[in-house]
Amino acid sequence: MPTLILVRHGQSQWNLENRFTGWWDVDVTEKGVAEARAAGQLLKEKGVLPTRAFTSVQKRAIKTLHLALEECDRLWIPETKDWRLNERHYGGLTGLNKAETAEKHGEEQVKIWRRSFDVPPPPLEADSEFDLAGDARYAGIDVPNTESLKLTIERVIPYWQEEILPELAKGETVIISAHGNSLRALVKHLSNIPDDEITGLEIPTGQPIVYEFDAELNPGEYYYLKDA
Ligand SMILES: O=C(O)[C@H](O)COP(=O)(O)O
């Protein structure tokens, strides 16, 4: 049975510091490493062993993938990294503290920037220290200067359809190690969550989520592997 495992990266340094991160390439903390290892141990314990892996080009997701695969002895499986699985771009909020931003602009405005479906944060200034346009990994890519969830969906779902779904069609057990909002994009699509209900979906770090697909590649309800 084709199976999909989604894992949000373990805690990052800026998760810990409560800063907007987006495309900025922040590492995992010690706690994040432990979360990633625990995710891999859970895969092993439950016998849900990935045969194919996808991740973003951001180290917090890549490291989480590798730590988890190491724990379930699957470091050898084929893996693909792609920017389309990156976190949504946080624009001009990148690097700012979330609580301080709420004090400055109000809780309501920050909630809109963080959880609305189609309101992007203010764009990143071209001379910002967080501008990644010159980063080698994005050569030839039009790096966005901000993204809403809607814009994130517009790059995640075509990638899902073109690159990941064909692997599931072969019967693979696919693991995707990615980010809060690139995974929200995917869960919204797979579970048919309406635009106005997606605001309520929070994806915790390091907790494997599983979808099982039928022969027609229709996904069932997702569940947390720890509860299975
Ligand atoms: O990019 C970030 O700051 C986090 O990974 C996700 O942030 P959010 O919870 O504000 O969507």
TrEMBL record:
The record marks H179 as: Transition state stabilizer. Homodimer. Substrate binds at residues 8-15, 21-22, 60, 87-90, 98, 114-115, 180-181. HAMAP family: PGAM_GpmA. The active site is at H9 (tele-phosphohistidine intermediate), E87 (proton donor/acceptor). Belongs to the phosphoglycerate mutase family. BPG-dependent PGAM subfamily. GO terms for molecular function: phosphoglycerate mutase activity. NCBIfam families: pgm_1, PRK14115.1. Keywords: Gluconeogenesis, Glycolysis, Isomerase. This is 2,3-bisphosphoglycerate-dependent phosphoglycerate mutase. CDD domains: HP_PGM_like. It catalyses: (2R)-2-phosphoglycerate = (2R)-3-phosphoglycerate. It comes from Aurantiacibacter flavus. Its EC number is 5.4.2.11. It holds the Pfam family His_Phos_1. Pathway: Carbohydrate degradation; glycolysis; pyruvate from D-glyceraldehyde 3-phosphate: step 3/5. It comes from the Bacteria. Catalyzes the interconversion of 2-phosphoglycerate and 3-phosphoglycerate. The keyword Isomerase applies.
